Amino acid sequence: MTPEGKVKKKVKEVLTNLGAYYVMPNTGGYGSSGAPDFLVCFQGHFIGIECKAGDNSLTALQLHHGMYIGEAGGRWIMVNESNLIELECMLAGIYLPILGARLNE
Predict the structure, then answer these.
(1) To the nearest whole number, what is the mean pLDDT of the chain?
(2) Does 104 map to a domain?
(3) In this structure, is residue 103 part of a structural domain?
(4) pLDDT of residue 88
(5) Angle, vertex CA 80, rays to CA 76 and CA 84, nearest 5
(6) Per the domain annotation, does 47 fall within a domain?
(7) CA gap 70, 93 in Å, rounded
(8) Which residues contact 34 (CB under 8 A, 6 or more apart)?
(9) Angle between the N-to-C axes of helices 84-95 and 3-18, in degrees from 0 to 180, rounded to the nearest 10
(10) Is pLDDT at 36 greater than 70 in this prediction?
(11) The pLDDT value given to residue 94
(12) pLDDT at position 96, please?
């Protein structure tokens, strides 16, 4: 499994454990290049999740998609091995407000 594949596996585990709906769009061929690796709906919130391994950086297209998601009222996060906890905290903010900020703050 690739290093990015390991990050995606961990993200899947977090989303599954919380009962979030998610899809992983296929961006090759007919898909939209730069779309996040995960499109998530959780407790009425739309979240785009881009996975990276190590210190890999985002492409310009990925940054644009993140900006468009934010402009449309959704949230977007880039996750790697070192900040997976940020995703968990962001979702916990919706799921268990006592643990942190809600998504819409």
Answers:
(1) 85
(2) no
(3) no
(4) 85
(5) 75
(6) yes
(7) 18
(8) 27, 59, 60, 61, 62, 64, 65
(9) 10
(10) yes
(11) 60
(12) 47
Region 88-101: mean pLDDT is 61
Q: 56: domain range?
A: 3-25+35-97
59: domain CATH number? 3.40.1350.10
Six token digits for residue 78: 């880039």
- Please say if the pLDDT value at position 102 is more than 50: no
Mean pLDDT computed over 46-69: 93
Contact 48, 66 (CB under 8 A): yes
Burial string for 1-32 (b: 16+ CB within 10 Å, else e) reads: eeebeebbebbeebbeeeebebeeeeeeeeee
DSSP secondary structure code for residue 28 in this structure: S
- Number of domains the chain is built from: 1
